[in-house]
Task: structure prediction
Amino acid sequence: MKLSLKLNFIFLSVALLFTFMQESPLLSSTLDISKLRFPVTKTILPNGLTILMHVDHSVPTISYQTWFRVGSKYEDPGYTGIAHLFEHMMFKGAKRYSGKEFDQLLQANGITNNAFTTYDYTGYFEDLPSSKLELVMDIESDRMVNLALTPENLKSEREVVKEERRWRVDNSIIGSMNEILWSSAYKVHPYKWPVIGWMADIDALTLERCKTFYHTYYSPANAVIAIVGDFDPVTATTLINKYYADLPKVVVPKRELPSEPVQTQERSSVVSKIAQTGYVAMAYHTTKQGDQDGYVLDLIANILAEGDSSRLFKRLVYREQKALGVDASSITPQDPGVFQFSVELKPNIAGPPIIGEIESELAQLAKHKVTAHELEKAKNQTMKHWVDSLKRIHDKAYSLILNEIVTGSYTNLFDDLEKYDKVTPDDVQRVAQKYFTKNNLTALTLNPETPKATKGKPHDS
Amino acid sequence: MIHKFSIILVLLGVMVNVACSSPEVVLPPEKVSSVPNNVSATSFRLHDYKVEELENGLQVIFIEDHTLPSISYGILIKDGSASDPMAKSGLAQLMSQVLVKGSIKMSAAEIADSLGQLGTEFQRDVSQDYMWFQVNGLSQHSIALFTIFSDVVLHPRFDKRELEREKNNILAAIKQRPDHPDQFASDAFGAYLYGSHPYARPVSGLVSDINSISRTDLFRAYKHNVKPNNAVLVVTGDFTKGLSESIKNKFGEWNKQDLSQKAFPVPPPFKGVNIRLIDKPDLTQSQIIIGNFGIKRSDPDYLRLRVANIILGGNFSSRLMERVRVNLGLTYGISSNFEAELDRGPFAISTFTKNNSVGSTITESLNVFRKFYTEGVSKKEVEDAKNFLMGAFPRAIETPERLAFNLSLLRLYGIDDDYLKNFVSHVESITAEDVNLAIKQHLDPEDLKIVVLSKASDSLEQIRTLGLLEVKSFNEIF
Result:
């Protein structure tokens, strides 16, 4: 694969400063991408389980990750939050290992574990000392098919999740604004409800629903395992066969999700909430994972809001001093996502004019081509993030399994850099014109209210 | 493609930091010491590293690693916000923010644009005990990155307009702080516990102090704290011998200066259970922090207390987690922590719960803590906690950058590198008796300060009888 990216550094004002180290050997000015590829083996068992392995002996640990192709988008209205609540139930014990033992046993063996849920998938991981691989496989294969779901566990865990919701959303400005933004931008597609679910739905989830959810979505054919780190692949393969090969093959139902209809007019609203300062959030519908436009949008996000040299930072934070911070992100999940802005305003700065300022920056992108210089900056920053994301064993496992789950093949990870490199100033202009239109915008402003001593919020108990 | 999702729900991370935090600045006398790996074959081998002390007293740590085309330069300054003069709180924070906004040769925009073009930007961190500046990037840009890094660190401009901008930013962030309940509660607990001790002040400072900071104050703080014999320089990643010589030459030009002795006042002692209820009427969930003074990082019981803390509230299977979250469903997260610093940092139990279960959450947490204190921990618990600590250790220093940062913290706190080199055997040697003695010596469940950030009309009656209570509004705390 030819991957000689031309990301030469620029002899700008920097060059003028080179006074003291002329004698240093000249460094290569292009990145050697071949150094960034690493060998991975992929196996699919007859029962449909996919296993990715990559050996890295740099530290005596292994990252063992098990992700399932199910997230909140497969929930039904009225039962939102089940994918996430269910993730909590996965720590409550199975056949060979009880809930009491579960965390205790892992941690007593020097293992750090956790899990997370998103719109599209749910992930579980253990970071373990090299010698503990078999223990982890025993535990993970047990809960993949033998989970014990009891009413007592559901009762206490439901309360835990409600506290999590109060923490992440109800008592967080950013959390609540984000929830409102997505539920305004999406009218039909399941991305309209939050991953954590609505409070009333969390309250209403039943054990029966959890059981059905488990038997539908948790099985070898719906899972990918990544094993990365300090292990012997022959031994690992033997263990995989021992613990997973006999698990039954279960057919996972294919679900057609409703497409989000094209948005035909701007949606904007003002949220009044007790807060010290204002906040602006904006979303434009874009595209899904894998589309080349997604790479262009990532670079646009970088140009607009990555670091002190970005356009919006310079304008809103530095020059005008109206914002504490500004963020732009292209979110491209499996189904079409959004390009999202959020701005934390300084005290006494009103939100609506800020939306206009961001729109004017977007109009600039659509009207004038970015220079090769500015685009190269965005590529350099993106490439550095990419390299940083492969520094730790845990992160390598994460990147591999993420690509396998979301794009269908881990190998896409290694094509990313080339796809970024291909982006031209024309692409940036075309993509800006395509997505950043008035009718495609959902905009929210937070109008900060002053607290009154007697005012409460009765909506959650 | 960047896979970002707006919401990723994680079950609550357990932070791993090995050499984190604490006291006594001892300047190690050694010169050019090359440190070979001498850990036993069965235990973990640290990356090879090299420490040199330049004639001006600057310690330089080199960790070479060519597995990725990546390089990092960092410098630790052994003074943080605790060194801010009286009535000038926030000075270290402000100085560090303005420092990266202009050198004698480059303006703020030139620094941002040049680093941006190289794919990176300045990273900064200020704690109570130190300041940290770092630039990392692709090693194809090694020289350019170093040129900017050294120029910014060694030749600050402290532009007046940049000072006003950053002041304005900090004041806005302080104004916004109550919108982040956990951060607000944490700062409020520090203020409540430490009284007139420097650790009482948030790193970002107090509004009236920040307003009074001038450009002269920045130069004075720089001159006073940023000097070679008060710093550790770290270089990690894919670099050449030629580059390391150039780095030593450049930083060798820096002039050594006198060091002043650091002395902390004694924080105000107290007895019994004291509660500060902070009223914020819009909250539906309350933040709770319970604690007292903990230990210095140099305390010989440091590792024994880390083991103790894992058992009490340091991971998912801890006693607090088991009782308050798993059995009772009162919270999503509860943890305990010793923040071991140059002076005695806090020991604290932190959690949050809906307003109408504040009383039961505090009572249950205290019950767990009292039992932990009176009955101690078992052999099995200690063995499990040791395994957890040893198992997490390699990840805490997995990358050269993390190892280098940990090594520089050891130099801040005057701890020998042996702490890291023989970490596993140090942990292995800890017994249940050691841990129980340390618990008895450093903790006391009868004398505690508690901060509750809540809607007071919901929570007041629940906690009235739990201790000596005072009620304040959230806008009269700082």
